[in-house]
Amino acid sequence: MKILLFGKNGQVGWELQRSLLPLGDLIALDRNSPKLCGDLTNIKGIAETIQKVAPDIIVNAAAYINVDKAEKEQNLACTINTEAPSIMANEAKKLNAWFVHYSTDYVFDGNGNNLKKECYPTAPLNVYGRTKRDGEQLISTSNCHHLIFRTSWVYGAHGNNFIRTMLRLGKERDSLKIVNDQIGTPTGAELLADITAHALRTALKHPDVSGLYHLAATGYTSWHAYAHLIFKIAQEFSFELKIQPDQLMSIPSNEFPTLAKRPLNSRLNTQKLQATFNINLPSWETPVRRTVTEILNRNS
Ligand SMILES: NC(=O)c1ccc[n+]([C@@H]2O[C@H](COP(=O)([O-])OP(=O)(O)OC[C@H]3O[C@@H](n4cnc5c(N)ncnc54)[C@H](OP(=O)(O)O)[C@@H]3O)[C@@H](O)[C@H]2O)c1
């Protein structure tokens, strides 16, 4: 079994390098890989890489994820998030290979406070969400065997994310305002990578599971409550903080203007994934605690 992974150094890509290894021979690329093209802005190069490797499974963990910058770099975001995954899907179809791709809750407008199912109509509020939604649609219409995992609020011990930003700001700043009216579910890169490997094992035996799935931990929180938990864990570890957890200020989104509009409700209904692949997704707090601890231990 030959597996070709794009975006090996991202949060999810890093964990996939671990979780995919037992499935077969893994060729893992990043944008600077020397012999095979792993740069998603080089569409022809990506197609040639896939043709040369002829993998059984293609996994794309690379993406343009800077949500605010995407508002100004629409073409680049579109190339990386829409065109490149579409080419990968077309090449997968020619090879009869599986294609695994990740998408986001930002394909929705975030209205209401219900958990969104896969079939809920998409209505992205920003360029990033639109380019990811368009990527999903092109993969789906390519008719290749695919698993698209829509997820939310991704973090990992490796890479940049909200946990690392909070720990850094907690050390530097005397006060911090955090948005309290955007709700969602922090989801670990480790979980995403482990479920990907598990789902692929099923998919290889049962091709009819091909499709789009919501994949996130269970429960939900706000950015403010999430930051509070991170600060509390840091406090337990005697991590040097200028701000104590209860001093974190809570503000509505309209007091923290950003270039790209964000959905208020990022909650995803994961029943389809849990039923199809026979898994229980964990609640979000325990794995967050584990990752914060891991980051703090590494820094100590
Ligand atoms: N992060 C989140 O909160 C979040 C939420 C929902 C969904 N997702 C989705 O989850 C997936 C994985 O995200 P992540 O959190 O692992 O993001 P990440 O840590 O930023 O990883 C993305 C990777 O893509 C690479 N990349 C960017 N442009 C590239 C290019 N032109 N060619 C090749 N590689 C390129 C980046 O490489 P460099 O390091 O060299 O830039 C980085 O290694 C993505 O599909 C994302 O849309 C993420």
Descriptive notes:
The structure is a single chain. α1 (11-19) packs across α6, α2 (43-53) packs parallel to α3 and α7 (223-236) packs across α9 (285-299). The mean pLDDT is 96. The protein has one domain (2-159, 185-219, 267-283): Rossmann fold (3-Layer(aba) Sandwich), CATH 3.40.50.720. It is built from 9 helices and 12 strands. It starts with a strand and ends with a helix. It has helices at 11-19, 43-53, 74-95, 127-142, 162-172, 189-205, 223-236, 271-277, 285-299, and strands at 2-6, 25-29, 57-60, 98-104, 145-151, 154-155, 177-179, 183-184, 187-188, 211-214, 221-222, 249-251. The protein is of the alpha/beta class and 300 residues long. Strands 2-1-3-4-5-10 form a 6-stranded parallel sheet, with helices on both faces. The longest helix has 22 residues, at 74-95. It binds NADP nicotinamide-adenine-dinucleotide phosphate. Residues 7, 9-13, 30-31, 38-41, 61-65, 80, 102, 104, 132, 151-154, 159, 189 line the site of NADP nicotinamide-adenine-dinucleotide phosphate.
Key traits:
Rossmann fold, 300 residues, six-stranded parallel sheet, alpha/beta, single chain, globular, binds NADP nicotinamide-adenine-dinucleotide phosphate
